[in-house]
Amino acid sequence: MKTSAESNNNASVARGGHSNLVARRPIQIFFIFFVGFALMFMFVYNYTSPVTIPVFSQYFIAPTTTIDNDKKLENVLRNASMENNTVIITTLNDAWAEPNSIFDIFLESFHVGIETEKLLDHLVVITLDEKAHARCQALHPHCYQLETKGTNFTNEAFFMTKVYLDMMWRRIEFLGTVLELGYSFIFTDTDIMWLRNPFNRFYDDADFQIACDNFNGDSNDLNNLPNGGFTYVKSNEKTIWFYKFWFNSRSIYPRILTQNVLNKIKMNPLIHDINLKIRFLNTTYFGGFCQISKDFNEVCTMHANCCVGLDNKINDLKILLQDWAKYMKLPDKRKVEAHPSWSVPQSCK
């Protein structure tokens, strides 16, 4: 049985606990108000600042894994770069590097194209396995073997398989690193034939330019369907942020191709707010099997897109270069008057 004194003590403790709770409530309310205000400030700041890189989004964008202090990469980029710190980049695995495979056809296109052979001095081949690296070194001066983080990219990566998607995302991550090192780049898939120097077909005002599977006639229209196999990207604060944003968006859109994720994010208000200038390249100049470039006198590149299977690509790209060789043999006057047509796609249909 409790004494009167014990009862009084218990009551006093209860009152004391209640008093502490009451005392803590203003602190909790203030803390909640402060956090809410901070978040609101960052949100408003993002959407009222047209120039500054969005701060709020950085809390949701973990930095990509960069290649820190990699002197080999820096040396390769420096040795291959143009005077304006621009390089041409492609990626290569063993399946595409075998003799008489895609890589040989790719290099051949530079030799038979118009004012393209000199561009080989600025081509950096990013190899994804040791066999591809050895083959690259046998044929080309600027090769860099990329760490693939335990994933085997040696064999043909079939479209939309996990290995294929991993390879595409590793590519985006790496290209972001190139931008961070201060180099602008043209990225080109190895199944793209370089038939004419493309630099006078790029837009001076664009930060990010990309080829299309289907071009709708308006290079500013975000409704164009991009193809990530050919891009021209200038190194600046906006594009560095954009490539991080693009790479980290893979967690929101898992098991989706990189260019399809680009389709999802290209109209994001954050991209608009940083004033990233995006332009889509005309298929008249940058064509492919999805949408053929019909004018031999204008075409710069032709891509074996809308085509699945290594053997199919090899077959049709060889035919494409045969068509090009016939065009190049024509006298200059006949080149203007003639209206040759491509014999492809055949196997890629």
TrEMBL record:
Protein name (record): Nucleotide-diphospho-sugar transferase domain-containing protein
Record-annotated membrane-spanning stretches: 29-48
KW Transmembrane (keyword) present: yes
Top-level taxon: Eukaryota
UniProt domain Nucleotide-diphospho-sugar transferase: residue ranges: 119-317
Key words of the record: Membrane, Transmembrane, Transmembrane helix
